[in-house]
Design a protein that fits this description.
Length: 390
């Protein structure tokens, strides 16, 4: 018997990050620095908002794009933090996590044969969703440019592939590198993109976790061609609540809004109530600042500790990942290194090659875990390296 199947599913690689996480989870006494999952609790006023919503029998279908209240809170958030102006009625769609926002936006703009330009190494979902949509990912290796897409590189790729490129995905601060773009670079990229048919999907889910200065959005410089993606997973430790959003010009957001309506109808009312206070109140903002300060301290600790151990790495400006090169003894074999580190030192990390071209030879550490876990992990890595050099 042959079961019917969408052929596009055959094009998608298995999720390597999950596969390694599952494999390493089976190791006794393992310290897991694998998954990008905040270790903080959800802010109290968001928890209370969920309880209140349930108690008030707020149980009926809400508007497809999200309640007016949550869209107003999102518009307030984007204006207050990033000086972006969006009308809650026309310009915002609330999704089930940024994950759904990525799916809706990629699917809305491509047809078979089209290309989606994806600077790499990066979050693997952009490639998978492109393949699912029947289009072709165009992964460009940014490892020679400190993991950032330079204006020259963008120009060169557009010259080579021309109109075949329908979408550019930019993720900053980036997973897995933690790198982000300066206002000047975003402006230079915007100037090249301006007037082309390329839609920019700006995944800014880590925007609130930017440590060394303000976060800038490319939407500031290219408003008519940009859809901004964000959510409360990372900024408010609400990964399990599943709320993200898309913001952009009315004509551009129509297609993603249709995919959203057809696939999920709308997000859940209690979750939207939680996000409304997370994004719309001073308490919600204060909770983010507290988490950001803690992440910044951990970043400083991990970067210093790894450098003292002899690793070479750029200092990440945001998110909660560091992306060092594997020790020389392993050459570019990042998979071999992370397997040895997990099996011999009981420290689980993710090989850089799981994030696409340019990731080979590196490995990702997530520091969204306690300081004690990080200190214990660094001690184990030190012992592992000492053993290695004997
Ligand atoms: C770059 C990036 N975008 C999107 C997501 C998914 O976010 P959400 O939990 O809102 O679906 C993640 C999660 O790790 C991520 O790293």
């Amino acid at each position: 018997m042959t079961r019917p199947q969408n052929e596009n599913l055959n094009r998608i690689h298995p999720n390597i990050i999950r596969a390694y996480d599952d494999r390493f989870s089976a190791i006794d006494d393992i310290l897991k620095l694998t998954i990008g999952e905040p270790d903080f609790n959800v802010p109290e006023n968001s928890k209370q908002a969920i309880i209140d919503s349930v108690t008030a029998n707020d149980s009926h279908y809400g508007p497809s794009r999200g309640t007016v209240a949550v869209r107003e809170a999102i518009a307030h958030f984007l204006k207050d933090r990033y000086q972006l102006e969006y009308d809650p009625e026309e310009n915002i769609v609330v999704t089930v996590g940024a994950t759904e926002a990525i799916y809706d936006t990629i699917c809305a703009f491509v047809n078979p044969g089209d290309k989606v330009l994806i600077p790499s190494p990066t979050f693997p979902l952009y490639e998978s969703d492109t393949l699912l949509a029947g289009a072709d990912p165009l992964l460009v290796d940014t490892s020679d440019d400190d993991f950032l897409l330079t204006p020259d590189h963008l120009k060169q790729v557009i010259t080579e592939y021309g109109d075949a490129i329908k979408v550019l995905v930019l993720n900053y601060p980036g997973n897995p590198t933690g790198r982000t773009y300066s206002a000047e670079t975003l402006q230079a990229l915007a100037e090249i993109l301006d007037g082309t048919n390329i839609v920019v999907i700006a995944d800014e889910i880590y925007s609130e976790l930017t440590y060394d200065g303000p976060h800038h959005s490319i939407a500031t410089y290219l408003p008519e061609q940009t859809l901004v993606l964000n959510g409360v997973s990372k900024s408010h430790a609400m990964t399990g609540y599943r709320l993200g959003f898309i913001a952009g010009p009315a004509d551009l957001i129509k297609g993603p809004a249709q995919f959203h309506q057809l696939a999920v109808t709308t997000n859940a009312n209690p979750v939207e109530a939680a996000a409304t206070v997370a994004l719309g109140t001073p308490e919600g903002h204060a909770a983010t600042i507290q988490m950001r300060d803690a992440y910044r301290q951990r970043r400083d600790y991990v970067v210093t500790a790894l450098r003292e151990l002899g690793f070479t790495l750029d200092e990440p400006e945001g998110a909660f990942y560091v992306f060092p090169h594997v020790p020389e003894a392993y050459g570019e074999d990042d998979e071999h290194f992370v397997i040895d580190l997990a099996e011999q030192a009981h420290v689980a990390t993710v090989p850089g090659s799981a994030f696409g071209p340019g990731g080979e030879g590196y490995f990702r550490i997530s520091y969204a875990c306690s300081q004690e876990t990080l200190e214990a992990a660094m001690q184990r890595i030190e012992a592992f390296l000492n053993h290695l050099s004997k």
